[in-house]
Every structure is written in structure tokens, then in C-alpha cells.
Amino acid sequence: MANKKSSKKRIRQTTKKTTVNTMARSKVKTAVRKAREAITTKSAEVGAAVKTAISSLQKAGTRGISHKRTVARKTSRLAKQANKVLASTKK
């Protein structure tokens, strides 16, 4: 256990930051999972689900929770899958 006042404060800060980042990461995973489910079932809500997932991914990248290239890669793959589904439903 830390003895110095500054060390104790850093422990408190790290704990808070960890919980916030964990919640945000969980939110991103949930949004991406829902988007993928919408894509695989070819539901009518594909566009909205993908838009929400991409938005949450971008926020995570901006806040430093996820790496920017990871966000770009996941966004690109989601959009590619969604566009394929949307193109097939329009035919």
C-alpha cells in the first residue's frame, strides 16, 4: 500500500479512470455486436445500428480508449459489411 499522499491520490485517480474506460469499452463492444447482428440478420435497422457503432468507436478513439488505427480498421470493416447488405436489399 502506498504511504505518500501523492501515491494515494494516483491510486484513486487510476481506479476512477479504469472504471470509466472499462464502461466505455463495454459500450463500444455492445454497439459493434448489435451492428453485426443487424448485418447478419439483414434487419431494417442496419443503417442506424452501424451509425451508432461507428459513432461510439470514434468517441473511444478520440478519448484515447482505443487506438486510432484500430478504430479506423473496425469502422471500415463494419461499413463494408453494411454496404454489402444494403446493396443486396436494394436489388
Could you walk me through the main structural features you see in this protein, from its secondary elements to its overall organization?
- This protein has helices at 5-41, 46-62, 68-90.
- It is built from 3 helices and no strands.
- The mean pLDDT is 94.
- The radius of gyration is 18 Å and the shape is elongated.
- With 91 residues, the protein is mainly α.
Quaternary structure = single chain
Task: Please work out how many helical segments DSSP would assign.
Answer: 3
Report the order of strands and helices: HHH
- End-to-end distance, in Å? 64 Å
Percent strand: under 5%
Q: Uncertain regions: pLDDT < 50 for 5+ in a row?
A: none
Task: State the helical fraction.
Answer: over 70%
Q: Given the C-alpha coordinates, what overall shape results?
A: elongated
Counting helices, strands and paired strands, the structural category is: mainly alpha
Number of beta-strand segments:
0
Q: Taking Cα atoms only, what radius of gyration do you get, to the nearest Å? A: 18 Å
Averaged pLDDT = 94
Q: Main beta sheet: strand number and arrangement?
A: none
Q: Short description, anyone?
A:
With 91 residues, the chain is mainly alpha-helical. The chain is built from three helices and no strands.
Question: Which tags fit this structure?
Answer:
mainly alpha
Topology summary:
Layout: H1 5-41, H2 46-62, H3 68-90
Helix pairs in contact: 1-2, 1-3, 2-3
